[in-house]
């Protein structure tokens, strides 16, 4: 059964496309609320889940932070600044062979993998250097 497109779902998708920094659910909600103050968090969260289930967006789970959402659904990697929280796509090859190697090692039936690299971005390093640290 195909899920219907709603105005709210389209607002959520539009927000994620506009917020190119892989927004959190809260960031999506705040962005939409600016123009549509009556929208609820529950509506935004429900539509994020629906869009993820439909494959229109990708949820990126972060161990020590809020999940982020991405309109690029093809497999790729990300990098996050541990200082300012900036979050970016990486333009490096996606290693499909890792899934097969992990399956052989563990006996798992692999679906896919997500890798988020962590580090300190250039802006934060330059700011720290300017402060004399």
Protein architecture, described:
It is built from 5 helices and 5 strands. The chain is α+β, with helices and mostly antiparallel strands and 133 residues long. It has 2 domains: 71 residues, Winged helix-like DNA-binding domain superfamily/Winged helix DNA-binding domain (Arc Repressor Mutant, subunit A, Orthogonal Bundle), CATH 1.10.10; 60 residues, Dna Ligase, domain 1. The strands form 2 sheets. The chain has a 3-stranded mixed β-sheet with strand order 4-3-5, with no helix packed on it. It has a two-stranded antiparallel ribbon with strand order 1-2. Helix 1 packs across helix 2 and helix 2 packs across helix 3. It is flat. It starts with 6 loop residues before the first helix and ends with a helix. The mean pLDDT is 92.
Low-confidence stretches: none
Number of domains: 2
Helix content: 40-55%
How many extended strands? Answer: 5
Helical element count?
A: 5
The CATH architecture of the largest domain would be Orthogonal Bundle
Beta-strand percentage? Answer: 5-15%
Mean pLDDT: 92
Key structural traits:
three-stranded mixed β-sheet; two-stranded antiparallel sheet; Dna Ligase, domain 1; Arc Repressor Mutant, subunit A; 133 residues; 41% helix; alpha+beta; single chain
Kindly summarize this structure in a few lines.
The chain is 41% helix and 14% strand. With 133 residues, the protein is of the alpha+beta class.
């Amino acid at each position: 059964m195909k899920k219907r497109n709603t105005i709210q779902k389209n607002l959520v998708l539009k927000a994620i496309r506009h917020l190119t920094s892989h927004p959190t659910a809260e960031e999506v909600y705040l962005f939409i609320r600016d123009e549509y103050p009556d929208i609820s968090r529950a509506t935004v969260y429900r539509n994020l889940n629906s869009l993820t289930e439909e494959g229109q967006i990708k949820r990126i789970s972060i161990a020590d932070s809020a999940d982020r959402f991405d309109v690029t659904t093809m497999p790729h990697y990300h990098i996050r600044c541990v200082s300012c929280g900036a979050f970016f796509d990486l333009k490096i090859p996606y290693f499909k062979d890792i899934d097969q190697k992990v399956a052989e090692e563990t006996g798992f039936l692999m679906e896919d993998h997500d890798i988020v690299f962590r580090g300190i971005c250039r802006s934060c390093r330059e700011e720290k250097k300017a402060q004399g640290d």
